[in-house]
Amino acid sequence: MKKTVKDVDLKNKKILMRVDYNVPINEKGEIEDDTRIKESLPTIKYLLEQNCAIILMSHLGRPKGKPEAKYSLAPVAKRLEQLLNKPVLMAKGIVDNETKSMAEKLSSGEIMLLENIRFDPREEKDDPEFAKELVSLVGPDGVFVQDAFGSVHRAHTSTHAVAKLLPSVCGFLLEKEIKYFDKILYSPERPFVAILGGAKVSDKIGVIENLINKVDVIIIGGAMAYTFLSSKGISTGNSLVEKDKIDLAKELLKKAEMKNVRIFLPIDHIIADKIADDAQVKHCDTPDIPEGYIGVDVGPNSISRVANIITSAKTIVWNGPMGVFEIEKFQQGTKDIALLVAEATKKGATSVVGGGDSVSAVKKFAVEDSISHISTGGGASLELLEGKSLPGIEVLQDK
Ligand code: AMP
């Protein structure tokens, strides 16, 4: 167990806090989704109650180690100011003289946000010198608070090297993420059902390999189902198949059988002549897909077959949509899964949804409030599901 902000005395301290403000910003400089900013508020408010001075740092997008106006965090500072109803000082740099003097003058109860940490090329190098410069902003009595779950799978300067130099603890968001992933991975109530979809088997190999040792059932949908079907000699028409992963898919099915894990692949499909709004769409009532068609969603029979399994599960993890749900004609399978996971949760199951696209699906079908935990980190949640330990969590102080 890692220490949290509640396990150390933070009264009147200067805090260096890593947040995940990697939010979508449009060409007009407007924030399109401020969920990530809102999610940092509980920890920030708690630190303010402790009379802390808070220096926030985050990355935004992928600038190439130098300042680029479109990746500035200035719009985020404004939004944070509105949400907190108090001033947020926006630094123009990261560890330049002006920022250092701002940090020095920062009093208890004040907040400042550093400019995009990736404007410095040393950020992605886990650089000890850069870490020392960042830590100097809060001084030797400072504390590092990590609340950027979406970044803890990366050993970067602001997620790893700085944590080695200061007492370092979790914020509330990170604490919640760890709590749910620990629960489902290390003490799940059974039956434990994993629902995996999305574009590629190659992205989820590690997840499947790890979950085979933990779950009772794996339901596979999305484009990755076609590589598995192909490995069983089933025709997949023009569906997305990763030819170089067919043997591996076969092996994974065999491993699952040996471990008594039941795997459900689609038995019917929604098929289309192309992936577009104006596609010709049909229901294909067999596992085999005819030539010239693409599987774009799981069919209704595939859903009926797993409905009871999902609603009687006690633990569910869902990562990846069942089809091309961004297009309305191809969304039904993903919508049905979202509703079934919500129903199971209402009946007492613990459900964890991770990965950017399944999170958007949960929001699109308005079941966010009926999911136990919606993870805020796509890459980080996948790595936890793969059984990896994450450097940005590992480095924090143990209780
Ligand atoms: P991932 O990031 O791996 O979770 O994949 C999400 C993407 O997979 C979404 O953009 C979906 O549109 C896409 N996807 C799901 N099912 C299919 C399919 N049958 N064919 C092509 N793309 C799909």
Describe the structure in your own words.
Strands 3-4-2-1-5-6 form a 6-stranded parallel sheet. Strands 9-8-7-13-14-15 form a 6-stranded parallel sheet, sandwiched between helices. It is 36% helix and 15% strand. It has 399 residues and is of the alpha/beta class. Helix 13 links the parallel strand 14 and strand 15. The protein has helices at 35-39, 41-49, 74-84, 97-105, 128-136, 157-161, 172-186, 201-211, 224-231, 246-258, 300-311, 332-346, 356-364, 378-385, 391-394, and strands spanning 14-18, 53-57, 89-90, 111-113, 143-146, 168-170, 192-196, 217-220, 262-264, 269-272, 281-284, 294-298, 315-319, 350-354, 373-374. It is built from 15 helices and 15 strands. The mean pLDDT is 96. The termini are close together. It folds into 2 domains: 5-173, Phosphoglycerate kinase, N-terminal domain (Rossmann fold, 3-Layer(aba) Sandwich), CATH 3.40.50; 180-385, Phosphoglycerate kinase, N-terminal domain (Rossmann fold, 3-Layer(aba) Sandwich). Bound molecules: adenosine monophosphate (AMP). Residues 198-200, 203, 222-223, 240, 295-296, 320-321, 323-324, 326, 355, 357 line the site of adenosine monophosphate.
